[in-house]
Amino acid sequence: MSVITDVGVRAQFPAAENLLYLDAAHQTPLATSVRAGLDAFYDQALRTAGPKRDWLTRVEEVRGQLARFIGVNADEVAFTKNTSEGLNVAAHGVRWERGDNVLLLEGEHPNNAYAWLSQRPQGLEVRLVPEDKKWADADTFAPYVDERTRAIAVSHVMFHSGQRNDVAAVTAFAQRRGIEVIVDAMQSVGVLNVDARALGVSALASGCHKGLLVPQGLGFLYSPHDAERLPPTYVALAGVANSRSSLVAGPEPVHLYPGARRFEIGNFNLPAIHGLGASLALIESIGIDRIERHVLCLGDQLIDGLNALDIPLVGPIERGHRSHIYVLDLPGPFWPELFAAENVRLSPVRDGIRVSFGLYNTSDDVDRFVDILRRGRKRQGTH
Ligand SMILES: Cc1ncc(COP(=O)(O)O)c(C=O)c1O
Questions:
Q1: What distance in angstroms lies between residue 288's CA and the mean position of ligand 1's atoms?
Q2: pTM (2 decimals)?
Q3: What pLDDT does residue 2 have?
Q4: Which end of the chain is more exposed for a tag (fewer CB within 10 A), N or C?
Q5: Options 3.90.1150.10, 1.10.10.60, 3.40.50.720, 2.60.120.10; which CATH number does 7-27+288-382 get?
Q6: DSSP reduced 3-state for 192
Q7: CA 378 to centroid of ligand 1, rounded, Å
Q8: All structural domains of the chain with their residue ranges
Q9: Which atom from ligand 1 is nearest to the alpha carbon of 25?
Q10: Strands lying side by side in the sheet with 347-349
């Protein structure tokens, strides 16, 4: 059953009309209103070379919009290039001494894992935590924590299984022990209701090209902590509070902006930020809770279809532990070939075939996909 039935929403995504698009976890198709946001920037650039002052005003408006969307203050949000940049800033900002450790789940996204693994030569121990069940919570990490544990770095939703980790439980456990929790929210922001303050994280990073519907090249980092707790990795004019109006960098001590702006370097991705303003408006016009229910309902429908065909799911079945991502245990080259021939866009991932929904998908899309699975099963049976 679809929760979002407005034809106007689907009509904004021509790619979802042209293909059976089940690949939101890879990237979402461009919406016409987001394209209009990008065009507004390009038109101004073309006609007037744009007063940069106006564009920077727009940056601050969109920063405020984004901050409200994730339940935090504007001065706690920095724009970045992508998730990896935000995670690296956080991973290199956490203070640790030789012999301290950080915990990651086995199978974490490499863009999260490498930010920490690369620090091992300096003496950081990275503990890879096995998962005893299909999602992670405080009990998953607790046996691996000791007095030298400085951070837990975890994805909110995992890209290879769709499991929704219980970040609030992990932070509640970690805060009591003075452990920082750094969250990769690339797969959840814009799809699930992410309230970063309520989650209690030390930092949360995401890109904008999946649930936030903007083309690649824009991300953000949320952190409520000041430079004492999370200093920036690199510093440029954008992060310096006491730069001179002459733009001569003098010998005086460098004072950083107290908020997340200290993490920002150089010029912004102005077109993408204009696009983000439009995409947040679109998402908010529908409502993030509705989008979350929508993708979970499409998931219910898919699971019914899979059960009827005896196709196992790699990730959790329980509604509270899943998301918009469903990985089907369908081994072999037969299935990717069939999906390509049927004009279905999805992603083979390490444990199976990943189907992922967005606000533009409909109940009919799921029916069509299950029908392709049924025909595939039949053909396999006749081989
Ligand atoms: C969990 C997760 N983190 C990060 C990324 C991407 O990182 P970046 O935004 O740096 O390209 C992806 C997928 O592309 C992802 O699934």
A1: 21
A2: 0.97
A3: 81
A4: C
A5: 3.90.1150.10
A6: strand
A7: 36
A8: 7-27+288-382, 34-284
A9: 16
A10: 325-328, 352-356, 347-349
